[in-house]
Design a protein that fits this description.
The structure is a homodimer. The first copy, chain A, has 2 domains: about 80 residues, Winged helix-like DNA-binding domain superfamily/Winged helix DNA-binding domain (Arc Repressor Mutant, subunit A); about 150 residues, Rossmann fold, CATH 3.40.50.10490. Chain A is built from 13 helices and 7 strands. In chain A, strands 2-1-3-4-5 form a 5-stranded parallel beta sheet, with helices on both faces. The longest helix of chain A is centred in the middle third of the chain and has 23 residues. Chain A binds a DNA duplex through α2 and α5.
Chain lengths: ~280, ~280
DNA sequence: GAATGTCTGGAACATTTATTTCGCATCTCG
DNA sequence: CGAGATGCGAAATAAATGTTCCAGACATTC
């Protein structure tokens, strides 16, 4: 048994990174060489095979194993897992660093972790929204919505807060809307008035509420332009024609954030109002 | 040689993604299944081995190879490489953020600035929530709410999305709630049932809706414990007894974010449900 | 209703993989 | 200067990988 370090191997990237940095100067030549390369291009460590990494770092594969073992891992693969986790789940490194700082805060009470978790989810959602949404899509949607007489807002369950907020905001801005999805069962009748001169916004996430689906289909069949906000390109709501947005909300403890959807909703709302103000 | 597609295989992720999305409906059942999984969790495709991915997608490993070949790749590994590049090419977060900020501040269309503005507002709101909220306050509020028979949710206008979301989430968690503030004028009658064994959550921001104020006063007079979420210590809602939270939402173009309020709302909701589950 | 083409599942295959082992070189300290 | 220990590299090894192949199921078409 050549057990080197009594300390347990770090399981998260940033702890490991600190450990490598501090111990680097005390390491044998080749191991230090690996340390340097690992810090310089951690992505290669995450993806490459031991052989390819060894070649790029100008080291023997066995040295990589030794390197991993020097830090308490059983083999190289185990260390590699840590490098991979960093890229998993798309926690952008910034957020991860923050959440780790927070985690170091003595863990905190259960409540604190809850709040931190939901805050994280909100921030990650907004971050990914910012990365992925194409401004031209928004402009296309706004073009539809701006020339509509009445905008029908379709959303059940988790999406209802979003549509209700849009209803409020549109109202404040002087845009006529009809909010669908309340408790009463009068929605199909309400939607019957929608026509080609109107527009509709449908919001739904997995699991897609069947009512939302039916309603979206109904207005679409009536020739009403439809703008969709959903969470997958394979969502049954995604229209053949028309604009749709993919919004991926991060979740915590199974409860997805709404921040990204709301940010997008507000953007659409205000943009539509602005276009109207200019044209009208 | 069973060369299927004359088209060359996409070498970057987003092109491939679009291709998968468009061709998905024309794909055989199992291949469509793979497509669905690949879009739902692309990170797993990037990291996992063919065997592990196949298991998670409930498909045979050979199907993965066929899937890759259906899109013009020679084998699965080649397709996997595209999924990996997506994560590899990600610029270091600091630079990315900086360049994004720069793009948003300087150039960018009006629409882009709108979206960025609302995203910023959301992030700032959540950030300040994280700093200012005291976990002990949350725990105190949770203690009130957890022992309530029925929770009354009071909120008009901008606060209504928050209460309606809480209503949805509480419902999913098996907690009885009554949502006040809908369009009908029956709210005072509904609230008449609130008693000392219940609890109420009132949410209101400047300008405080008079209805919310009246309703909060009503339940308070009836001896119902009240938890308040508002935006100022001088808010007329702040109760003499009971718990209240100050949530300052950042705004953009006069429209305040809801992200912080929602994050707090979700924290309260889940925390209450957890306490109830423990106590039976 | 038979025949044809496609899709699917499972196992066999060759290859690549991470790891271990062993011998040599290098450095250290008496 | 020499004995011991340590670092290092190349090959050997055993596990695991991606891929291919074939037979059966399935739907479709004539």
């Amino acid at each position: 048994m050549t057990d080197e370090t009594g300390t347990a191997a770090p399981r998260d990237f940033w702890t490991l990174r600190n450990l490598i940095v501090t111990r680097k100067d005390a390491l044998p030549k080749r191991l230090a060489q690996v340390a340097l390369y690992a810090m310089a291009s951690p992505d290669d460590i995450a993806f490459g095979t031991a052989a390819s990494i060894a070649e790029k770092a100008a080291v023997q594969p066995s040295t990589l194993v030794r390197f991993a073992q020097a830090f308490g891992y059983q083999g190289f693969s185990e260390l590699q897992e840590v490098f991979r986790d960093r890229l998993r789940d798309r926690p952008s490194t910034y957020d991860e660093r923050l959440s780790q700082l927070r985690a170091h805060k003595d863990g905190g009470s259960k409540t604190e972790r809850l709040l931190a978790g939901f805050c994280d989810a909100a921030e990650r959602s907004v971050g990914s929204l910012r990365e992925r949404i194409d401004a031209r899509q928004i402009e296309a949607a706004v073009a539809f919505l701006a020339r509509a007489e009445t905008i029908y807002l379709i959303g059940q369950r988790r999406s209802f807060p979003v549509t209700s907020y849009m209803s409020y905001a549109f109202g404040k801005l002087g845009v006529k809307t009809v909010l669908v999805g309340s408790a009463q069962g009068t929605d199909p009748e309400t939607l019957a008035f929608a026509g080609p001169r109107d527009a509709a916004i449908a919001i739904s996430f997995t699991p897609y509420a069947s009512a939302t689906l039916a309603q979206a289909r109904q207005v679409s069949d009536q020739g009403t332009p439809l703008v969709v906000i959903t969470d997958s390109p394979f969502s049954p709501l995604v229209p053949k024609l028309g604009v749709w947005f993919e919004v991926v909300e991060a979740d915590y403890e199974g409860f997805r954030s709404l921040s990204a959807s709301l940010a997008l909703a507000m953007t659409l709302t205000v943009a539509v109002a602005e276009v109207r103000r200019q044209d009208g």
